[in-house]
Amino acid sequence: KAGVTQTPRYLIKTRGQQVTLSCSPISGHRSVSWYQQTPGQGLQFLFEYFSETQRNKGNFPGRFSGRQFSNSRSEMNVSTLELGDSALYLCASSPGTGSTGNTIYFGEGSWLTVV
Amino acid sequence: DAKTTQPTSMDCAEGRAANLPCNHSTISGNEYVYWYRQIHSQGPQYIIHGLKNNETNEMASLIITEDRKSSTLILPHATLRDTAVYYCIVRGFKTIFGAGTRLFVKA
What we know:
The complex is a heterodimer. Chain A is 0% helix and 52% strand. Chain A is built from no helices and 11 strands. The model of chain A has no long low-confidence stretch (mean pLDDT 93). By secondary structure, chain B is mainly beta. Chain B has no helices and 9 strands. In chain B, strand 3 (32-38) and strand 4 form a beta hairpin. The chains are: A mainly beta, B mainly beta. Chain A binds chain B through residues 4, 33, 35, 42-45, 48, 56, 58, 88, 90, 92, 98-109, and chain B through 30-32, 34, 36, 41-46, 49, 51, 87, 90-100.
């Protein structure tokens, strides 16, 4: 069974640009969540989608947005990029949402560098 | 959302058991305890999870105290490849990661 797939793996953008990252969950998983990881802040929760609906959201500005498609694939978008947005963006999928034993599995992440 | 507290770093000799503690005193109801590890520049890898009973799989054992306020991850025979950051999380409405424990396995 294929794992969580994220594309692109590495990208460089300029301040002010926008970026879209893609995530394909494990087959059969309906929940996708996104995390930002930086050396200073660690792993921070961005948002979670389940059945095309955003279920949870972390404390990030509105420049960070996401969506989920009917096939459970998800994208996240960051507009008006800032230098501080340079980070590893991780996608994770699980069969369902919430706790109750729904294990989340992570992809390898997308490394974003903003210059 | 329950938070977890872990030691910043730990050392372990290769071949010995590594015991990684975690406090989650605000855990509630049916929230599960999960453990992940992250090797530099890779996505976190799932290790094990449990609700209130001790659990064991091919990677590790998880011991949860009776009051569920703390747990210990046990790697029975640590190898150099187990050097990583280990995260203990309580999976609730939002899955919050703490800073984790940086485990150094030394030859």
